[in-house]
Amino acid sequence: MDKKNMVFIARSLDGYISDRNGGLDWLNVIPNPEHEDAGYGKFIKQMDALIMGRRTFETVCGFDGDWPYPNPVFVLSKTLMAIPEEFKDKAELVKGSLGEILDQIHQNGYHRLYIDGGATIQSFLREDLIDDLIITTIPVLLGGGAPLFSELPKELEFEHVGTEVFLNELVQSHYKRKN
Fold it and tell me: CATH number, domain at 158?
């Protein structure tokens, strides 16, 4: 089975994935009356499961409406001791090294993994465990917040696969890790 770890995320022009207060309201600065999903629906259908960090999980738990993921969700956390009761049927807590966690998830039959959350993406990149990056740039400068990327122990090379424009303003680029 082809194992793949993919990122699908939005960032500001200046590279942030949340504002200074951890907010995400800026993601909606471009009017979207038709509720265009910028390729997310197609992407998520290709994924077997999601791996996200605790902060991303807590943010998602605070959203209004139904649980947004049709796939199993695995939450990485060193500090969370248990998934809150109301989300126990939606997410599973996983602990250990990224290699151990991936082995466990792969043994359960999940091979195409959506990696989400700033710190989680950065951890996977530090260990060279990201195969594809799909990054949507939203034309807003936040001037601070949580950056998408951080320092890496070595340079990682990706090749450009393609770029699409959504809503005439959102630029989405797909990059694949060079072997």
Answer: 3.40.430.10
Cα dist from 67 to 82, 114, 123, 151, whole Å: 18, 16, 25, 33
- Tens of pLDDT along 113-171? 999 999 999 999 999 999 999 999 999 999 999 999 999 999 999 999 999 999 999 99
Domains held by the chain: number: 1
Domain assignment of residue 87, given as a range: 4-177
pLDDT tens-digit map of 41-71: 999 999 999 999 999 999 999 888 889 999 9
Q: Which residue has the tokens 């792969």?
A: 106
H or E segment at 73?
strand 73-76
